[in-house]
């Protein structure tokens, strides 16, 4: 087992960041491995990945069907050129391309439950259904990055060989860059309360709920940081802040390579998602002692917060955990009640310092880089099975 190819969708997402942490850990612990990276969709300037041996498709085609075919030919070309012993892919469509092409060992990493793919347009939903029924079975192994994702994959009978491997987080790197100066041209000097929502802009994230809550939170600025995944939804958000008259209090910022100084600076990090796998931004915020308020979007949240109770997906009350606050899922209560809960819990955090200091973040043990040994052993096992 020598040549390993990593397939990403793009290089400017949180998935790319945690995948890169995995790659760096593999290179550190197993320096004899020859690892190359390929971005299937595009490689924007200023991305996280700086790799001297790098393939990427130079142009993203905005015709969705045509882009799928271009991506298939691109992956085929990369595999023929590099001749990997193992190809590791991330996310739904890229996992499908990996399953479809090549005779090497193929591993698919899934970062979210299938419900997230069902919230896309009709083309994406149809192709995901086909991949679910026909392609993912062709993967030699599947990894879920949280117990929630693993359980979901088993329910959908995606594959017979599913393993739990938590995303690796590079806390040493976070410590190195967390105190870099914040661009005051972008953020200004902190004079007001600040809320941060960090993640892709799409309907699953429900940023509209936070915007509507802002009307009842005086003297508060909201930063929404993330790549626009759904242009229509983004335009709806822009229209919403205009209608509500809070344009000056909501700031949209594209993906940031280093969000940690901002995470440290804000008063609250909020996640209002319907569905999540193992949200890294919550892990990183807790590590940086920033108060966290999040919806009951997955079992992964309970894992991070070290909750001992049996997971309740239909939680209808506010849970004050040792490590943060969990509020109901947006799908399980009315919008008016959801907004009221967000306002009340953020106001509670403003009044109390309870969530500012975390004595010990137990979950960090499961996501440190030395857990790469388990992942490597899984790859080696798959490679040896195929060799025999």
Report on the architecture of this protein.
With 388 residues, this protein is an alpha/beta fold. It has two domains: 185 residues, Glycogen Phosphorylase B (Rossmann fold, 3-Layer(aba) Sandwich), CATH 3.40.50.2000; 195 residues, Rossmann fold (3-Layer(aba) Sandwich). Helices cover 39% and strands 17% of the residues. It contains 14 helices and 14 strands. The strands form two sheets. Strands 3-2-1-4-5-6-7 form a seven-stranded parallel β-sheet, sandwiched between helices. Strands 10-9-8-11-12-14-13 form a seven-stranded mixed β-sheet, with helices on both faces. Strand 13 and strand 14 form a beta hairpin. Helix 8 runs parallel beside helix 9 and helix 8 packs across helix 13. The protein is globular and about 65 Å long. The model has no long low-confidence stretch (mean pLDDT 85).
CATH top level of the largest domain is: Alpha Beta
Rg computed from alpha carbons, rounded to a whole number of angstroms: 21 Å
CA distance, first residue to last residue: 13 Å
**Helix and strand string, N-terminal first?**
EHEEHEHEHEHEHHEHEHEHEHEHEEHH
Helical fraction:
25-40%
Count of separate DSSP helical elements: 14
Seen as an oligomer or otherwise, the chain set is: single chain
**How many β-strands, per DSSP?**
14
Shape: globular
Instruction: Please identify the structural class as seen in this structure.
Output: alpha/beta
Overall mean pLDDT stands at: 85
Order of adjacent strands in the largest pleated sheet: 3-2-1-4-5-6-7
InterPro entries: Glyco_trans_1
Organism: Flavobacterium columnare
Pfam families: Glycos_transf_1
Protein name: Glycosyltransferase
């Amino acid at each position: 087992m020598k040549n390993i190819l990593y397939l990403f969708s793009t290089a400017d997402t949180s998935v790319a960041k945690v995948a890169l942490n995995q790659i760096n850990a593999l290179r550190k612990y197993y320096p004899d491995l020859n690892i190359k990276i390929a971005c299937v969709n595009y490689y924007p300037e200023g991305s996280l990945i700086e790799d001297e041996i790098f393939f990427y498709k130079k142009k993203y085609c905005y015709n969705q069907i045509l882009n799928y075919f271009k991506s298939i030919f691109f992956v085929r070309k990369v595999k023929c050129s590099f001749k990997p012993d193992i190809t590791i892919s991330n996310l739904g469509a890229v996992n499908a391309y990996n399953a479809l092409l090549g005779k090497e060992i193929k591993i698919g990493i899934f970062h979210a439950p299938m419900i997230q793919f069902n919230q896309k347009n009709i083309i994406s939903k149809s192709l995901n259904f086909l991949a679910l029924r026909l392609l993912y079975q062709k993967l030699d192994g599947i990894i879920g990055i949280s117990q929630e994702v693993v359980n979901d994959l088993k329910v959908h009978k995606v594959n017979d060989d599913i393993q739990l491997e938590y995303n690796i987080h590079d806390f040493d790197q976070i410590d190195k860059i967390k105190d870099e100066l914040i661009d005051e041209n972008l953020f200004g000097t902190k004079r007001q309360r600040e809320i941060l929502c960090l993640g892709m802009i799409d309907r699953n994230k429900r940023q509209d709920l936070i915007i509507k809550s802002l009307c009842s939170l005086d003297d508060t600025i909201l930063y929404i940081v993330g790549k626009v995944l759904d242009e229509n939804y983004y335009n709806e958000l822009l229209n919403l802040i205009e209608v509500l008259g809070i344009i000056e209090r909501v700031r949209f910022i594209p993906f940031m390579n280093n969000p940690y100084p901002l995470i440290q600076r804000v008063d609250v990090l909020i996640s209002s998602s319907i569905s999540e796998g193992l949200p890294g931004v919550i892990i990183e915020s807790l590590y940086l002692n920033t108060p966290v308020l999040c919806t009951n979007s997955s079992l992964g949240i309970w894992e991070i917060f070290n909750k001992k109770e049996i997971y309740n997906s239909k939680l209808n009350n506010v849970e004050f955990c040792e490590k943060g606050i969990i509020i109901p899922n947006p799908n399980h209560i009315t919008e008016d009640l959801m907004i009221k809960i967000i306002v009340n819990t953020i106001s509670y955090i403003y009044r109390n310092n309870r969530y500012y200091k975390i004595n010990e973040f137990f979950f960090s043990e499961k996501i440190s880089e030395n857990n790469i040994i388990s992942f490597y052993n899984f790859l080696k096992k798959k490679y040896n099975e195929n060799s025999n």
